[in-house]
Write a structure and sequence with these properties.
- The relative contact order is 0.09.
- The chain has helices spanning about 10-20, 35-40, 50-60, 70-75, 95-110, 125-140, 160-165, 180-190, 205-235, 240-245, 265-280, 285-300, 300-310, 335-345, 360-365, 405-410, 425-430; strands at about 1-5, 25-30, 65, 80, 115-120, 145-150, 170-175, 200, 320, 350-355, 375, 390, 415, 435.
- The strands form three sheets. A six-stranded parallel sheet has the order 3-2-1-4-5-6, with helices on both faces. Strands 11-10-9-12-13-14 form a six-stranded parallel sheet.
- It folds into three domains: about 1-200, 3-Layer(aba) Sandwich (Rossmann fold), CATH 3.40.50; about 210-295, N-(1-d-carboxylethyl)-l-norvaline Dehydrogenase, domain 2 (Orthogonal Bundle); about 300-435, NAD(P)-binding Rossmann-like Domain (Rossmann fold, 3-Layer(aba) Sandwich).
- The chain contains 17 helices and 14 strands.
- It binds uridine-5'-diphosphate-xylopyranose (UDX).
- Uridine-5'-diphosphate-xylopyranose binds near residues 154, 158, 257, 264 and 266.
- It is an enzyme of class 1 (oxidoreductase).
- Its EC number is 1.1.1.22.
- Keywords: NAD, Oxidoreductase.
- One of its GO terms (molecular function) is UDP-glucose 6-dehydrogenase activity.
């Protein structure tokens, strides 16, 4: 099938490459010509395991193309996926200008039937706006061409995006007519493993499903973070509590890990957008607002532990930070809890020696205003003379370090384990002062 994907960001590039891998002829459009040139030369603008090979293979096979020419991209695909950014506007609601611009671009150049698919995370009602924008441009052109607008939200996780796309738990398709449903079914047929995972629903329900899924997951995290804080206060161990509640199949073990707060490109933005969306209907989202407030608070947790240990004035102190990306297996620094930790410590006069296996370049860009941060290229170098180690992101390389070496390098053998990766008793026996999250 001939498919166009508008936008070569995270979702667009992964979707385009995966659709090509299944034998489709895919053209990816981006208005950023420099990015298109970079992609054509085999460059990949983001870090995502497996993506580089996947793109290369499909470009070589002639199934994946990149262009900045809107007319060519509109002519190419019978199906046009819109996968452009929906950044938060000033009030936290999703800014739809790029989605609507993409829709107008399609309308300006189309000469026959098109299926337009919203893949970007967009508020309920966006498909109607897209439909109206397309109709308006067609009317301006004085042409009457058939088109439909479907919603097909993406549930991919950074770091596991290709697996999530290739073997989805479910594929949600919101569509109003049988023709569109039939085409979407054909596109996703090869991605179904043992049974049909395609869920067809009305467009608005599909749009809301995406937000509801992310908000539910964010809720679990904030809930667990608050439980962890309570565990600390009452002398309990959240790791045991986690196992105790996870055994109930209604709760389950997934996504119950406390930490330094959730970050990334989805949860913070989507939780906010959901509140704004509900606000427009005069419906307060009490749970979601609390989830957001609890998360904002949690991001300060690790820095507060340091302040409790060393006092407000941290001048002359140095801390090692392991893990900068908002989670492992990505170089994404958006809303990363490490940023709050680092800002809070350096603001009080401390210096930071930071290490991340992949996100160091991204982190250096985001933190370039902060001369108190030194990036080191070896994880052990970060520890040299430090008053403590703060583990923020649970990359596998941090899982089982050489603790004797860690102990020898640190000035003060303090380990602040922001992801409960280490065995508290072992570390204490090895002479460390250890503190996790929610482990009294
Ligand atoms: C998320 C959703 O999982 C995905 O379905 C959606 O399409 C986009 O948003 P992503 O942002 O890539 O994906 O990362 P995810 O693995 O879900 O983690 C999000 C944040 O939650 C990270 O900061 C992570 O550290 C944190 N988290 C996750 C926890 O603190 N505890 C957990 O138990 C799980």
């Amino acid at each position: 099938m001939k498919i166009t994907v508008v936008g070569t960001g995270y979702v667009g590039l992964v979707s385009g490459a995966c659709l090509a891998e299944m034998g489709n002829d895919v053209m990816c459009l981006d208005v950023n010509s420099a990015k298109v040139a970079f992609l054509r030369e085999g460059g990949i603008p983001i870090y995502e395991p497996g993506l580089e090979d996947l793109v290369r293979r499909n470009v070589q096979a002639g199934r994946l193309h990149f262009t900045d020419d809107v007319a060519a991209s509109v002519a190419h695909g019978d199906v046009q996926f819109i996968a452009v950014g929906t950044p938060p506007g000033e009030d936290g609601s999703a800014d739809l200008q790029y989605v609507l611009a993409a829709a107008r671009g399609i309308a300006r150049h189309m000469t026959g039937r098109k299926i337009i698919v919203d893949k970007s995370t967009v508020p309920v009602g966006t498909a109607d706006k897209v439909r109206a924008a397309v109709a308006e441009v067609l009317a301006e052109r004085g042409v009457d061409l058939p088109f439909s607008v479907a919603s097909n939200p993406e549930f991919l996780k950074e770091g596991a995006a290709i697996h999530d796309f290739m073997s989805p738990d479910r594929v949600v398709v919101g569509a109003d007519d049988e023709y569109t449903v039939g085409v979407m079914r054909r596109i996703y047929e090869p991605f179904q493993r043992t049974h049909d995972r395609l869920m067809v629903m009305d467009v608005r329900s599909a749009e809301l499903t995406k937000y509801a899924a992310n908000a539910m997951l964010a809720t679990r995290i904030s809930f667990m973070n608050e439980m962890a804080n309570l565990a600390e206060a009452v002398g309990a161990d959240i790791e045991q509590v986690r196992r105790g509640i996870g055994a109930d199949p209604r709760i389950g073990y997934h996504f119950l890990y406390p930490g330094a707060g959730y970050g990334g490109s989805c949860f913070p933005k989507d939780v906010q957008a959901l509140s704004r969306m509900a606000g427009e209907h005069q419906l307060p989202m009490r749970v979601i607002e609390a989830v957001e407030a609890a998360n904002d608070e949690q991001k300060f947790r690790l820095a507060r532990k340091i302040v409790r240990r060393y006092g407000e004035d941290l001048s002359g102190r140095c801390f090692a930070v392991w893990g900068l990306a908002f989670k492992p297996n990505t170089d994404d620094m958006r809303e990363a809890p490490s940023l709050t930790v680092i800002e809070e410590l350096t603001r009080r006069g401390a210096t930071i020696r930071a290490y991340d296996p992949v996100a160091m370049d991204e982190a250096a860009k985001v933190l370039k205003h902060n001369p108190r941060v030194t990036f080191v290229t070896d994880m052990y170098d970060a520890l040299e003379g430090a008053d403590g180690l703060v583990l923020v992101t649970e990359w596998k390389v941090f899982r089982a370090p050489d603790f004797e070496r860690v102990r020898a390098l640190l000035k003060t053998p303090l380990v602040l384990d922001g992801r409960n990766q280490y065995n508290a008793a072992d570390l204490k026996a090895a002479g460390f002062e250890y503190e996790g999250i929610g482990r009294a």
